[in-house]
Amino acid sequence: MTTLLGVPEVVIDRLPIYARALAMLEMQGRQVVSSQELGAELGVTPAQIRKDLSYFGRFGKQGRGYNVQRLAAELKGILGLDREWRMVLVGVGNLGRAILSYRGFAEEGFRIVAAFDRNADTIGETFDGVEVQSIANLPRFLKDNPVQVGIVAVSAAGAQEVVDTLVANGVRGILNYAPIALHVPPGTRAKDIEPVLALQSMTYYLKGATS
Amino acid sequence: MTTLLGVPEVVIDRLPIYARALAMLEMQGRQVVSSQELGAELGVTPAQIRKDLSYFGRFGKQGRGYNVQRLAAELKGILGLDREWRMVLVGVGNLGRAILSYRGFAEEGFRIVAAFDRNADTIGETFDGVEVQSIANLPRFLKDNPVQVGIVAVSAAGAQEVVDTLVANGVRGILNYAPIALHVPPGTRAKDIEPVLALQSMTYYLKGATS
DNA sequence: CCGTGTGAACAAATTCACAGCC
DNA sequence: GGCTGTGAATTTGTTCACACGG
């Protein structure tokens, strides 16, 4: 039981995985689950689940396990998933359009409220109900509208400048699809979505295999 | 200096980041770089870079640093990026189509050689030069063609079955876009691409912020 | 004098193992 | 008897600090 501010980031990164599994169990009508079962499902040790949860409280009952509905709700609360989050997308090329059409964000309460691009051909067009604005409008938009997360889907060359604009206008969460290491000030969170990097480390292990 | 088989996975996961930065420096015509500079660029300590590299050899020169071209080539060799990798895509919905149209894979030597879906309306259509086949063809295709990686872009409900088919037919690398924890046997590598999970842990830190 | 490579020191994360409660 | 919650033990990963070569 450490102070709330001191929860290791690896723990925080696992909580959404637990939350997702619990939501699934909840849908299946499951009432109770043990750390044993949850761990088997997720490929995690039961002790790790119990330890992770212990940072935030005592949610289980000895001899029984965890109430699925209760724990699911607790985790949502801890993570801040009991509210809607507003995001802007910057970069509406191929990748940006795919992001706009992806239903998974909205389903989990992450709403893309505006999209920006610098390409004159794209500005003014509408994709999945979002009209693309000039990137010149981005600072004003951020001043006038609450936005918590910026999705960066521009090229590596343009990404840092976009991030600087987002950060300068109060956006403290960045979801980065550009293939570059971003620089963000303390207090800002950036997460990289990098399928190519994932493949490039996987190949190390596949090298030795047949085929 | 540990045995090659014992390199920690976290180290392997960082190598592609180094490789990418070095490729960039190389394009800029840079000859030499120190762990200091590289670390500043990537937000990593110089000691960590040196330690990571020391698992594989001695690539630097005291007092000088690393030859950019040489180190870039070494890392590519270590990771197995000096060859082409063949992948199949399973699931050609919205997400699958976005993956097919993504140029980033091919640019780094990862080629999607076939795509499969179970939806009769989609089978036979062509996206970005790849014709969609019935998922019933998947086992035969894998027997007849060398494929190292399977990209899973089906729903959570269908993902495990797809993975089982891939694994049963010799695919040892899985790039998973489905929002579920997969079960794979030892010797198989699975990596999850999960933008929603990334957002859901980010919100923990954003909760307290203004706006 | 600069920067690598690396044991040694340290810090972080995971797992163990068991007391306590249902 | 079953399973949580948690200190203690262990393992894993990171950083230090310096001998050595250029």
Description:
Two copies of one chain form a homodimer. Chain A starts with 8 loop residues before the first helix and ends in a 5-residue tail after the last helix. The radius of gyration of chain A is 20 Å and the shape is globular. Chain A is α/β, with parallel strands linked by helices and 211 residues long. Chain A has nine helices and ten strands. Chains A and B meet through helix 1, helix 5 and helix 9 of A and helix 1, helix 5 and helix 9 of B. Chain A binds a DNA duplex (22 and 22 nucleotides) through residues 1, 8, 10-11, 34-36, 45-48, 50-51, 53-54, 58-66.
| Largest sheet composition of chain A | 7 strands, mixed
Strand content of chain A: 15-25%
Largest interface: A-B, 61 and 61 residues
| Alpha-beta classification of chain A | alpha/beta
The number of helical elements of chain A comes to 9
Distance between the termini of chain A: 49 Å
Estimated helix fraction of chain A: 40-55%
- Oligomer state equals homodimer
The number of E-state strands of chain A comes to: 10
What are the salient characteristics of this protein?
seven-stranded mixed sheet, DNA-binding, 211 residues, alpha/beta
Summed up:
Two copies of one chain form a homodimer. The first copy, chain A, has helices spanning 9-27, 35-42, 46-54, 68-79, 94-101, 104-107, 138-144, 156-168, 195-206; strands at residues 32-33, 60-61, 65-67, 85-90, 110-117, 126-127, 130-134, 149-152, 173-176, 189-192.
